[in-house]
Structures are given as structure tokens and as C-alpha cells.
Task: inverse folding
């Protein structure tokens, strides 16, 4: 049975996720923005946390941890252990960890912060990317360089199209308006935006999104595509420099 996924809106625009294995009873929490809505979701499902994954050190991803951790195994980046809450399992890129009875692969996706991690569950086709790759966007570069974030984007872009992308914030409508300024003629983007507008009008999350769709519509995954480079007047430019130019425009959008 594939793992069950529950998306939990927290704070103003954060998302936490619960992943549950109905056979083993194990439950993973991805990020801990705020304890009460997460505890309410656990109570509603009748689940108890066995694992907690922290994607990066920002307060809006870790501050809810203390009342939730109990005897759960807390997992985070080894390279960031000095500035994360106490870790029970410290992981690095290339590590393969069993979580909720499934194999999970760890990626270093530095850029938003250094040592930000993403975790991929290939069997259930789930990718937890938090503030690295986001629906139609990517996180702001607080610590890393554009080249580092572009490298991170390429790692995640290599994963299968049918992967569900579980990112950390509901920024999709703003990201969509921005993406349209970069590629106004991208037909897939235009049709995706219609869906997003309806989803948000109904008060529903646009997260998780579909990684295959991101590949065709998210400008931050398309810095090496001819259509995007041409739309920006940057044909033939180094992809990392194109990525930097997109990110710079987004910062002031
Ligand atoms: Zn963050
Ligand atoms: Fe965040």
C-alpha cells in the first residue's frame, strides 16, 4: 500500500505534512511550523508520530517541534546539526534511510539555506522539498548562491514526472503571476494558472503539485530551456546565470 499523505496548513502560509504507513502504523511529520494544527491532524487520524523530518533550520519549520517530538526519531542534516534541534538521526546527501517502512533518499538542496535537505520516497512518489523547489517557484536565496540553487533544482528535476512535490509554503498564486511575466506565451503555464486560481478561490492548497507539470511551467526549472532563454533575451547564456537573473527579478516582484 502506498504511504498516505496529509497536508496541514500552519501559520500564515506554511505547510507541514504527515506521511503514514497503514500496515506498520508508522507516521512521519515533515517540518514543524506550529504544534496545534499538527496535533489536531494527528488526533483526527488517530496517528502517533514515529519520525519527524526537519528540512532546514528556519524558525517556521522547527519552532513547533518541542511539544510534538515525544519519542519520535528526529531526522535532519548532519551538516546543520549545530543549528537544528537535537537530532536522533543526522543525514547527508546520498543517504538512503528507511522511514515509515519505505526507502527514502536524501538530497542536499542548498540555496535557500546551506544544508537544506529534500527527501524523496520513490515507491510512493513523494518529494519533500520545503523551501528549495516550490510550486511554480523556489525559495529565496538567503545563504547560498544562484549556482548552488540551480544545482539543487537540477537534482530534483531529474526525479520522475509522477512525483508529488510537497513544498513548504502557499506562494503559488504570486509565483504564477511572476512566472507569466517570464514566459507569457507558455501555454501549459497559462492553463495551470487557471487551475490554481480556481483552487485558491475554493480555499484549497495548491500543494502538493505534480513534478512533471513543474518541469514545463516552473521558470526556476527552465533556466537551460531555449523557450525560456529566448523569452528573457538570454539565448545561449550559462543556465546558472539565467537562473540568477530569474531569481533576481522574483526578489523585486
Ligand atoms: Zn525557510
Ligand atoms: Fe519557510
Result:
Amino acid at each position: 500500500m502506498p504511504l498516505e499523505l496529509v497536508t496541514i496548513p500552519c501559520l500564515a502560509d506554511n505547510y507541514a505534512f504527515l506521511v503514514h504507513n497503514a500496515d506498520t502504523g508508522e507516521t512521519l511529520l515533515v517540518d514543524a511550523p506550529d504544534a496545534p494544527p499538527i496535533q489536531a491532524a494527528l488526533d483526527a487520524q488517530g496517528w502517533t508520530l514515529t519520525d519527524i523530518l526537519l528540512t532546514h533550520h528556519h524558525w517556521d519549520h522547527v519552532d513547533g517541534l518541542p511539544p510534538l517530538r515525544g519519542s519520535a526519531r528526529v531526522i535532519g542534516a548532519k551538516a546543520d546539526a549545530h543549528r537544528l534541534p537535537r537530532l536522533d538521526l543526522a543525514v547527508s546527501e546520498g543517504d538512503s534511510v528507511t522511514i515509515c517502512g519505505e526507502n527514502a533518499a536524501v538530497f542536499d538542496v542548498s540555496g535557500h539555506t546551506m544544508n537544506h535537505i529534500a527527501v524523496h520516497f520513490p515507491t510512493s512518489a513523494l518529494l519533500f522539498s520545503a523551501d528549495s523547489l516550490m510550486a511554480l517557484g523556489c525559495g529565496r536565496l538567503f545563504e547560498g548562491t544562484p549556482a548552488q540553487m540551480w544545482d539543487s533544482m537540477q537534482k530534483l528535476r531529474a526525479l520522475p514526472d509522477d512525483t508529488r512535490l510537497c513544498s513548504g509554503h502557499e506562494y503559488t498564486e504570486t509565483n504564477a503571476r511572476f512566472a507569466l511575466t517570464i514566459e507569457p506565451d507558455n501555454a501549459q503555464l497559462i492553463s495551470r494558472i487557471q487551475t490554481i486560481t480556481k483552487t485558491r478561490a475554493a480555499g484549497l492548497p495548491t500543494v502538493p503539485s505534480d513534478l512533471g507539470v513543474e518541469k514545463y511551467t516552473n521558470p526556476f526549472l527552465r533556466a537551460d530551456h531555449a523557450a525560456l532563454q529566448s523569452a528573457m533575451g538570454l539565448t545561449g547564456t550559462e543556465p546558472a546565470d539565467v537562473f540568477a537573473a530569474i531569481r533576481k527579478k522574483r526578489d523585486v516582484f
Q: What stands out?
A: Residues 4-251 form a domain with the Metallo-beta-lactamase; Chain A fold (CATH 3.60.15.10). The radius of gyration is 18 Å. The first strand starts at residue 4 and ends at 10. Residues 65 and 79 are 19 Å apart (CA to CA).
